[in-house]
């Protein structure tokens, strides 16, 4: 086990504490890290991926296991926190860079996902990724040891099966890959549904929470959902304008600039790819 450390922080929304926490975590940047976000609510990070877990008197609820290595490490760390087993593993969506490794918990856990994720996980047939035995299409609650977790489907976005995990008692939302915090969307938007994505973000904006925990990168607040929706709307409008002018995809990639977002992570690298993804999507949806 390589070096990691605990970082404790009270979950104080809107204060300088959370950004400070992220900065301090990045200075040493261990491979694995557990951060206590609130009473019995933890963030665990493995390299660039992260997810939540919750401890209760009747068992642990884990979201994305990330990988066999990450899940094996997490299982060992959980033993230092609780004598309870993992009872639920919740998959945020079907992408294997987030959900591989659940077999580590398979003896005592149930696996939960959106119904459409289950189909894709069945097809992939990866023995490290147990097939979900609990699925839903719109909304589902899990109650365990006095803790309630709401799983909500807000429509297609980065995938067709992304759920959000809402912790009502903590006003905290976990959402993976479709609401990056001050970061551009991933590359050329593989698997994505850009129009529905924007609508899905509007539905997230209707939910009652204060803290946004993404699957990569820094923790945000609810305001970051609106900022990212505006980014997607601005990107779509800029690419649509290029299409209307008859620009080729290469021309659009060179011309579209969104300086409002130039301070965001991955702006220089991923903006041309985001443009390309949108361009292909809008070209196809016109026919
Ligand atoms: Zn993904």
Plain-language structure description:
The strands form 2 sheets. An 8-stranded mixed sheet has the order 1-2-3-4-5-6-7-8. A 6-stranded mixed sheet has the order 9-10-11-12-13-14, covered by helices on one side. The protein has 287 residues and is an alpha/beta fold. Residues 1-25 have low confidence and may be disordered. The termini are far apart. It has a single domain, classed as Ribonuclease Z/Hydroxyacylglutathione hydrolase-like (Metallo-beta-lactamase, Chain A). The protein has helices at residues 17-28, 68-81, 96-99, 115-124, 194-205, 223-244, 249-255, 267-286, and strands at 6-8, 32-38, 41-46, 49-56, 59-63, 86-90, 110-114, 134-136, 139-144, 147-153, 163-167, 172-175, 211-214, 220-221. It binds zinc ion. Zinc ion binds next to loops.
Please describe the topology of this protein.
Layout: E1 6-8, H1 17-28, E2 32-38, E3 41-46, E4 49-56, E5 59-63, H2 68-81, E6 86-90, H3 96-99, E7 110-114, H4 115-124, E8 134-136, E9 139-144, E10 147-153, E11 163-167, E12 172-175, H5 194-205, E13 211-214, E14 220-221, H6 223-244, H7 249-255, H8 267-286
Parallel strand pairs: 1-2, 5-6, 6-7, 7-8, 12-13
Antiparallel strand pairs: 2-3, 3-4, 4-5, 9-10, 10-11, 11-12, 13-14
The structure holds zinc ion (ZN).
Residues 93, 95, 158, 177 line the site of zinc ion (ZN).
CATH architecture: 4-Layer Sandwich
| Largest beta-sheet details | 8 strands, mixed
* Largest sheet strand order: 1-2-3-4-5-6-7-8
Q: Name the structural class.
A: alpha/beta
The arrangement of helices and strands along the chain is: EHEEEEHEHEHEEEEEHEEHHH
Indicate the CATH topology: Metallo-beta-lactamase, Chain A
């Amino acid at each position: 086990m390589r070096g990691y450390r605990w970082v404790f922080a009270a979950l104080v929304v809107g204060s300088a504490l959370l950004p400070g926490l992220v900065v301090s975590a990045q200075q040493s940047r261990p491979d694995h890290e557990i951060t206590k976000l609130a009473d019995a609510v933890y963030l665990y990070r493995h390299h660039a991926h992260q997810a939540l877990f919750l401890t209760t008197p009747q068992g642990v609820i884990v979201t994305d296991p990330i990988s066999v290595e990450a899940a094996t490490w997490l299982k060992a760390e959980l033993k230092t926190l609780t004598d309870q087993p993992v009872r639920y593993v919740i998959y945020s969506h079907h992408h294997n860079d987030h959900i591989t490794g659940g077999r580590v918990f398979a003896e005592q856990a149930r696996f939960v996902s959106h119904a459409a994720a289950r189909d894709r996980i069945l097809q992939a047939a990866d023995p490290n990724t147990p097939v979900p035995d609990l699925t839903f299409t719109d909304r589902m609650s899990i109650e365990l040891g006095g803790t309630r977790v709401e799983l909500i489907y807000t429509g297609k976005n980065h995938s067709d099966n992304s759920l959000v995990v809402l912790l009502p008692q903590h006003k905290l939302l976990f959402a993976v890959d479709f609401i990056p915090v001050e970061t551009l969307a991933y590359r050329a938007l593989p698997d994505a549904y850009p129009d529905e994505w924007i609508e899905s973000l509007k539905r997230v904006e209707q939910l009652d929470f204060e803290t946004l925990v993404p699957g990569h990168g820094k923790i945000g607040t609810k305001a970051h959902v609106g900022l990212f929706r505006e980014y997607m709307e601005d990107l779509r409008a800029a690419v649509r304008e290029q299409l209307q002018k008859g620009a080729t995809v290469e021309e659009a990639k060179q011309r579209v600039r969104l300086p409002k977002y130039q301070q965001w992570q991955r702006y220089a690298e991923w903006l041309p790819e985001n443009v390309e993804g949108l361009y292909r999507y809008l070209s196809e949806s016109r026919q």
